[in-house]
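WARN no homologs supplied; continuing
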Amino acid sequence: EVRREEIRLKATPLAPRRPTWLRLSVRPFASPERDAFDGSKRTGLVLWQIADITDERNREAQKVGGLESALAGFDSMPLGFLSVASDGTVTHVNATFEGWLGFTRGEVRSRCATLSDLAGEDGARLLTDLARETEAGRRAIDLDLAREDGRIVPLTLYAEPAGAGFTLTALNRALSGLGERFGSSEIRLSHFFQSAPFGIATLDRAGRIASANTAFWRMLPEGRSANGALAADVMGQHADQDERTQIVEGLAAVLSGRGNVAPIDFKGGEKPGQVSGAVKEMMHRRAYMSPLATGSGEEAAALYLIDTTEQKALEQRVVQSQKMEAVGKLAGGIAHDFNNVLTAIIGNSELLLKRNKPGDPAYKDLMNIRSAALRAAGLVANLLGFSRKQTQQVSVLNLGEVMTDLTPILKTSVGEKIELKLRSERDLWYVKADKTQIDNVIINLCVNARDAMSNGGKLAIRTRNVSEREAQKMEHVGFTPGEYVLIEVEDSGTGMSPEVMAKIFEPFFTTKGVGKGTGLGLASVYGIVKQSGGFIMPESEIGKGTTFRIYLPRYEPRDNEMDVPAPAKQASRLDGKATDLTGTGCVLLVEDEVDVRQFAVRALRLQGYKVLEASDGLEALDVMKANEGKVDIVVSDVVMPEMDGPTLFKELRKDNPSMKVIFVSGYPNEAFREQLGSDDFAFLPKPFSLPQLAMKVKEELAK
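OK structure emitted
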């Protein structure tokens, strides 16, 4: 092992010319000579080496001194210097720059470790982009930085690439030779210019951008400085042809001094951070232009930009909402009237079936009539689902258990050519929804996925929890952050174009062939999800497949809620006698539709009941008075002329608080349950069959 040491020897009167610096080296040494007595090698010796390094040290001292002088000059120069690494870390800053910002020496790097700490996120992004400019003349920008005490420092910054990072040279406009041009009022004006929340730019006579603030560059598609570029090119980069024409004509008008022009709306490119395959949201801008009379001739016009993206999104959402609401009301009204017709068709076909045997010639025709009516009832249910007026049997659900129950049906529905994978996260939160409706949503999406994979493919269904923190990061028009349970249905099918994606939830829109689709499947899915308080977000890309994400709000059930079985699984109250539909008692049937009333009266009389009839609420009250104490139960429609069902209910309960009431309607019972302020009634949705009506009456009388 060699040891080295460098020592400095002071000159003395006895040795005035002794070397100032020496380097000493010492290491063990084994002599080749042997001991004279025993012939062994001589050990324990060391070798010393001494070298004069005075000249070498003097040369190094001169270099260090020169570097220190350069650094001292660098620190005291009237320009600010800043070095930035590729990751945005500030690696060096001179004293001048620190002094401008009110820091003591070395304080900037300890308190502002990154460029974003000094200039803000937007400023750092602009400066980083500035350093990437290929033209040196376009690497300058005016930017205001804030001191520790809140005062503003107006700087002109010049960027220069340096390896993987870059350097910034700063000129303080308040202290430089530009002082006459930038007095205190001008500095304040410059601060307002740079910190304005909207984009401001000045244009020269040729329509080129002479200067612009940070907000202006942020509204550009690339979000980077482009001083000297033509404003028409910058603004029209993503605008359509009509918008570009308006921009060019508007700029020509203000640059020629013909006065102000009307505001111009144009597209500013795709919104950043969007998921590939989703319907793309565009950024929208509104430009205001006016001529300038500065006298210098350098700045001929002012250009102001505001971000109207959210405003446009809100306008589109309102228009879409109004359209869907209008179609929903129309669909709901049609469905309500159609349900009455279907009730009469289904009911009368069942009455006829009771009078015919399977071998009779008319029996098969009657079965076909009944089957067609039931299929039509399914379409009506889809219409009501879209209009969010479908009757819901809400219960507390674990979507993992729902998926387990659905697995056999889904495997049958998608077929053997499609690889089906289901995955549910453990400890899924609960949701509150109608299980049958949620089943229909999932089946509907899977059937659509199957149809998009005619040659086979992969279908994945996943469920997991979504925290509020994750939801807050999502950018989707109308989405409300919160805690959700996510159902994700992803296929590897043909995918959809953005044009098709924009229409998929509209009723009667379908891409399937004639007879293969009604155009109500996804419309129904949309309505069910909305009625359940959730959101549905589709993504698709041609040739890559489609993904539907359904977010249902988390529900935290009370202890007693978890002990109540879902309505579909409740045991019959008739103790196994569900097939016996006969009964006794007096029923008052209130229905304004003659066909429905006639069927219901005949159906109940066939089961042994005495039936009284009324066409509206007022007539029903008269019948009740004429048969006081004889009526055991009232079966009433909801929407009727003269007096509707809820009003009749209130009048009946005044005289007889325990009167049993069954409402029949094509509308959901929630719509009038809130109006009544009571849950003490039964409900039977239209269209209903003979067995369903008879069973409901018998169940209520048995209570």
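Confidence is low (pLDDT under 50) at residues 178-187, 563-578.
OK
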